[in-house]
Structures are given as structure tokens and as C-alpha cells.
Amino acid sequence: MKNSFILCLCLVFVFSCKKQGDIQERPIEDKKPNVIVILLDDAGYVDFGFMGSKDLDTPHIDNLAKDGVIFTDAHVTATVCAPSRAGLITGQYQQRFGFEANDTGFGNSGDIGLADDVTTIAEVFKQNEYNTVALGKWHLGGSDSDHPNQRGFNEFFGFLGGGRSYFPIKHPNQKQMLQHNGEKINFEGYLTDVLGDYSSKFIEENKNTPFFMYLAYNAVHTPLDAKEEDLIKYQGHPRQKLAAMTWSLDENIGKLITTLKAHNLYDNTLIFFLSDNGGAHNNQSDNGQLKGWKGNKYEGGHRVPFLVSWPSKIKGNSKFNGLTSSLDIFKTSVEAANLKIDESLELDGVSLLPYLSKQEKGNPHNELYWRKLEESAIRVNNHKLISLKNYGSVLYDLNKDIKEEYNLAKIDTSTFNELSKRYYHWDLSMKDPLWVEGKNWMKVTYDIHKNLMNNEEVKRKSPYKK
Q: Is the pTM of this model over 0.70?
């Protein structure tokens, strides 16, 4: 009897050790990857060291870029905040469900937001037992049905609207208030730090569970709020406020990476880093040689800094020049995690993994489309057609003319006709917009496009300034 008891104890001990060894020695290949999407707001195309900036300090972001792949021809689906986010989070052109204009409804339409029948990337991850969290700016609807907790996120720590102060607001409205799963949060300090701290806290609490994190900083969107110590650091800088805001943003992304490394999660975490649209005209951002800015269909409006890091799977310190879209984040993430998705789910993006592993060469996309009310564009390989309702169209060859200065519409008529035809058929397959924008903004946006199409100086960039 005694010998049997000792034998049982030995077997339990051996089995226990084996189980612990399995946990400790389990190779990264057998673990589900974590996925993080870091989305910035209105960041300039060249406003990071890895994109060529000489005057803004971004050491942590630059190190992330060294560990990953930099995409040189990457685009978002819209040139303004809300529809761009709708395209990213659904993996579909947002025009498929009428989310075309900025904000989430206008005038008599009410707050429409995301269509109830579209699937978000968070819903897919949640259904596959990932813990999901949305941090920061939402801007996809303020109604109960559009709350992040109803769109696939276990946790939401952020605000519902399109912008707010980076410092505490005494009496915030429903869209401005910082909240945690619907409950108001009173915070002290600087919002970029608060979001950065929470991102690290979430990782600490979920280090043993696969997670999907949508980390949507409102930096560097206006207002140009910065901490006093950072303003002092950049005293005399020609872009003092933006430099200070960017420094704080970089510090907090550094916190995130440090926490991942501390728990041996970094190598098996797929990280996307991008901006929701091009740099804005009113936040000191720099789009480099790209023409245009946030709100218009020129490259400065929708070509964005974009990088992907996954050290255990993707060779870093490299660049990829193929035509890429924020639409691809959904499909890439799902494939990386080997998740099952509904076969009826119509995604407009593709997985970037075969291109990153060099199994596939060339362009992930041969064509991309943009449409917002009176302005539209189509890109097919190196050619791009921009059209303005009741005014006309211009054609550019981006391989030879990245600045979009030389209109080929009357010179290369066959390409002009081909792109016009393709856009016409795509446009027919999309829904009409469910809301528009204010007349003053529509007028200014229209006039800006006319100026840019004629290579003229744009004198009025906002309806609020003469």
C-alpha cells in the first residue's frame, strides 16, 4: 500500500513537471500571436525618423520600424478620420455600407455610424477567444448599437467622438468624455500618457491570453495640446507644439514595446502602425513632396506612413514597395492568427503575409478607389485619376510624377478612358452616402480640389478662415 502511494506521488510529480515544461518550452510557433493596430490621427507622411524626418524625434517608433517592414506605397480608404476608420475596422470599402462622409451623421440623419450588419475585425477575434480592447478615439458612432462594447470589443477605454482636449475637461459631453466600458473616467495629466499607460496595463493583465488591441491615439490631431515639460524641451523649434506632441506619442509607444518585451510577447506580436489619413493643414504636419493634405484626393491626403512588425515571422529592417491599403489589416491579421471567418464575409483587402514572406511578388492591389461626396479617385498600377463632380478629371503617372503636377488626361486618352470605365463600374456597386457634410465644408473642399487640379495656390483651406 505504501509503495503504491509513493508510486502515485512520483507519477503526479513527473506529470506536473512535464506540464510545466510544456508551458515554459512551448515554441512560439505553437502560440497564437497577439495583434496590435496602432492608429495615429492626422500624422504627416514624413513626420517620423523612419520616414525621413530630421526635426521630429521618434526613436521608439523608428526602432519598431527597424524590426519590421516599411511600406512605401500604402494608403487608407478615406482622406478624413471617420470613414477611414470604418474601412480599416471592417476590411471593406466603407462606401459598401454608406459610411462615406466624415463624422457619423449630419443634420436630420442623426447619429448613424456603422451599419448594424457589418462585421468588425474585433468581432472575428472575439469569436475566436481573443481578448479584445479598443483604446482612444472611436469616431464610428455614438449610439448604443455602435458602442465599441457592442462591436466586438471586450473593453473600451477612450472617447466616442472625433476630437477633444488632451487635458481634462470639466464638463465633457457624451462624445468627449473619457470612459471605460460606458462609465465616465476622471483623469489627471495628459491624455496621450493616460492611453499609453492603459495599453501597458492591459498587456500586463492579459499576458497569458491572446489579445487584439486597437490603439487609436488622437495625437496628433488638433487641438495642439502638449505638456509643459515637452514644450520647454522643444523651445525655439519651428514646429514646437507638434514636436512636443510627437515626442510624447513616441514615449508611450515605447512603453507599450517595453511591456511586450518584459513578458516575452514582442516577438510573437503582429503590430501595424499607420495614420488614419494624411497630415492636416492646421497641425504643423509635413507631407513631404506629396501634393495635398487631409481632406483631398491627392497623395498627401491618403498615402500614409505604414509599417508591419512581427519579429518571429517577418524579417525586419526592410521596405516593401507594392501598392497596399489599410483594408489589408483585417485579412492579414486573421490569416496570421489562423482564424475562421464566415465565408460570406466580403473583404476588399488581401493578406500581406505572402508578400512579407516573399512567396508573392508585385502589388497586393492593382487598383484602389476613393470617393467622398463630390470628389473621387482611382489608382490603377502607376496611374491615378482624380475627378470632381461637374468640373472634370485629371490623370497622373505616379512613377514619373509623384508630385501630381502633370495632367495626362488629354495626352494619354486610352488610360484616361480605361480608368474612367473602371471607376464607373466600381461606383455602381457602392451604396449612396447615408449622410453628407456641412455646406460650408463641402464648398471649401470642392474649391481646394479645383485649385490643386489647376496647380494653383490654395488660399482658403477652412470655412472658418477667410
A: yes
For CATH 3.30.1120.10, the residue range(s) in the chain are 367-453
DSSP string spanning 385-447?
Answer: EEEETTTEEEEEETTT-TT-----TTT-HHHHHHHHHHHHHHHHTSPPPS----HHHHHHHHH
CATH topology for 367-453 is: Arylsulfatase, C-terminal domain (3.30.1120)
Of residues 331, 332, 325, the one with CA closest to residue 353? 332
In the chain (466 residues long), the average pLDDT of successive 10-residue segments reads 46 43 47 97 98 98 98 98 98 98 92 96 97 98 97 98 97 97 97 98 97 98 98 98 98 98 98 98 98 98 98 97 98 96 92 93 96 98 98 98 98 98 98 96 97 97 84
For residue 306, the cross-strand partners are 71, 274
- The DSSP code for 120 is P
Q: Which amino acid is at 160?
A: L
Q: Contact, 70 vs 362, CB < 8 A? A: no
CB atoms within 10 A of CB 399: 9
Categorise residue 42: left if φ over 0, alpha if ψ from -120 to 50, beta otherwise: left
The neighbouring-strand residues paired with 319 are 70
**Hey, which residues does 270 pair with through a beta bridge?**
35
The answer to whether 244 and 226 are in contact (CB under 8 A) is: yes
Number of neighbouring beta carbons within 10 Å of residue 335: 15
Query: Whose CA is closest to 268, among 321, 182, 371, 337?
Result: 337
Give me the count of residues in the chain.
466
- The class of domain 33-356 in CATH terms is alpha beta
Domain with CATH 3.40.720.10 in the chain: 33-356
